[in-house]
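Just curious. Invent one:
>
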Amino acid sequence: MVATSWPGVDPEWSRIVHASSTSAVDAPGTTHRWHSLDNGPQLQRRGLTPAGTLLCVHGNPTWSYLWRTLLAAGSDADHPWRVVAVDQLDMGFSERTGTFRRLQDRVNDLGDLSEALGLDGPVITVGHDWGGVISLGWALAHQDKLAGVVLTNTAVHQPSGSGIPAALQLALHPAVHRWGTITSDAFLRVTHSLAHPPLQPEVRKAYMAPYRGMQRRVGVGNFVADIPVDETHPSFAALQDIAEGLRELKVPALMLWGPKDPVFSDRYLKDLMERLPQADVHRFEGAGHLVAEDRDIATPLFQWLAGRQEPAGVREADTLPPRQTREEPFRPFWDSVEALASGTDNVETAVAEMGSDGKISRSLSWQQLHRSILELQEGLRQAGVGRGTRVSLMVPPGVDLTVTLYACLRLGAVVVVADAGLGAKGLSRAVKGATPDVIIGIEKALAAASLLGWPGRRFSVRDLPAGRRRMLRAETSLDALARQGAASGHQPQPPDPAEPDAPAAVLFTSGSTGPAKGVLYTHRQLTAMRDTVGGTFGIQAGSRLVAGFAPFALLGPALGAVSVTPDMDVTAPGTLTAGALADAVAAIGATVVFAAPAALRNVVATGDALTGPGREALGKVGLLLSAGAPVPEPLLVRVQELLPHASLRTPYGMTEALPVTDISLEQIQAAAADAATGNCPGAGNGVCVGTAVQGASLAVIPLDSDGKASGSSPVTDAAVTGEILVAAPHVKQAYDRLWVTQKDSVDPPGWHRTGDVGHFDAEGRLWVEGRLVHVITAPDAVVTPVGAEQAIEQLESVRLAAVVGVGPGGTQAVAAVVETVPAARKAGPAAPQLAAGIRRAALGAGVQVSAVLEVPAQPTDIRHNAKIDRTRLARWANRVLAGGRPGKP
């Protein structure tokens, strides 16, 4: 046993073991002294039988201390697992052997130790950094005992044509290597600095403990020197054998990744996923190389282990949603395009774009659209795009995006859609996380790809001059691929029939409540979305759609609807003017309009500039849809004045399920009347979003006193507030590379947890009260924000209100942050008279407000320009009320 005083480590875990060496680098009969952290003897003393063993292998320059949270979790009496966290030879507190140990030696060493420990199955290997490679080498050599593999940031293969990461190149440089890794402790300190947030001083001290003095750091230097930089390196063959061997490894796998790693980036994760396609993957946004320090990896790892042990089947039947049936056969997403193009005389416009002059700047008929899709499909196929290829589309809504998306779907490629509305940082994070194989984009997008280091081959939209093409590293263009497809000398090869349950698209959420999440859809779910939208809103062949929101622009052709993109910046909905909307409506004789709430605000604001023809065109619209954020009833009333004959509908939905419910202006007004009179139990305290759309089921998981939806039995009783659940054929398949998030989102089975909170009224209408993460836990009540916000916004002096919690959970005070009319010149506490009126308004909604603050403008999300960032405001309010300078929220 090694004397220990390391935070988070039970001294009883520390153990010394002697193991005979079988490594060729050692003389016959050599025995080595190993140190490990091992809770096995402790479990035995407590009379606990472990479910199996976690064999945890650290990398360079850490030691077994890295795995202390797994040891603590494995010692839980409810789910005991033996956790053996080894210190590799020449590392940690194990023996300094005085020999240079290469990759294969270290794999053999680990086998020697497991033999000395008598490890039997089931064994789950856990590895980090180069310890990940060594753990996999052990796994391949001991498959009779192996039950699974867990990997954190590591790599087994260096992509051809790309150099090793810059940080490792520097560490290997002859002028730096010995000084940086052995003579000084620079390599250790740099590695420790990669933690996010920074390591606590006592934790950093524990990591340094085994490496004080040059002789204690020789193994650190040798470990770096053993990195196979190319095929001439002595360890290259061993690494290659492990990398290729993984393809035959069929055991369960889990990968927990920190994408902010300057060494093991997402390209290495992608390589591992291709070698272990059965792996469950979770990327912890914001975490880096020391992911085990940056995030709690013990909880998801042991949840994963528990899932492997649970019996097959589902939980109690009463948790399952009503069964969804599919009466009609599967029709591919592009089916309507083919059908409408088949008529020899069908030259009607299918898709169009509006120019700044108020006229159509570009359009394709159904026949032209179909032919363009086929030609580009063939060109993409010849360029190597096929089934499973991830294609990031950085193309504005319109003709080009429509053709490209449908061509990719027909090929079986997986389209990745993350729009510029996420902002530069959010967009870059999304693209890197999706690791596309190909990026298709306008010049601005390809320039961002070069500047920000996005992965993937690059195709421009238009042909580019040779110099510009080289600078942007664009291999070819959509124009060139389409010409190539058209000139193939034969009919474009038809794709294989679409596999309904194969991945089709990764769509990113708005990022309004945290980093944007990739949402994976299959072909079946995309077509279910098409059918739900068409069936719920009556959009079908012959409909004419103005799409001011990218998803509806792409759905139009799938529904058989003529669609036009108005003259606006679709990444900034507030740029749509009444004139541009009227021009688009008139251009195709539109019967349906889709526009985000922020777009409607600007349409109303610019409505006075409409000409007679513009007003006449809008008067012919029969249906207006607006979603993405709540649409206030007064705004809809003003929109109705501009579109007097349109049914105004505000479907509620999300990227994970679009749409979920539907409600019209008249139904909103009826619900408001019910809330005012009190004749309908449950009416009020939120935004009424109506009833479920075609094929969907809704329920809630009630909130507990801590503001959490911790129960497992969905209910539909009136006036019970809880997290909203939805089940429908068009709900997402999974969150992309977010195993933990996905697991949490589908509990109970069959339902999707939306993250929104709300309740039903006695008429079965759903009222949304806010986001679960924004629920306030006051001393005597759980407060949801939307009801009080609505009441405050009834005041003439208030434009927008946000209700947030201040202070520790369970004892939070309620603060109201308002944007006033006219706008305040600076942020800070509100004037007494304004504050008093706001408190009275909130109290009328049953909420006692303790503090009132005002801001010149509410911080809103980038994509919709409508969702207030309550999390950001809560941080700001806490700072201000604690005596800090207000500044900008």
Observations:
- The mean pLDDT is 91.
- The longest helix spans residues 366-382.
- Residues 656-729+751-773 form a domain with the Luciferase; domain 3 fold (CATH 2.30.38).
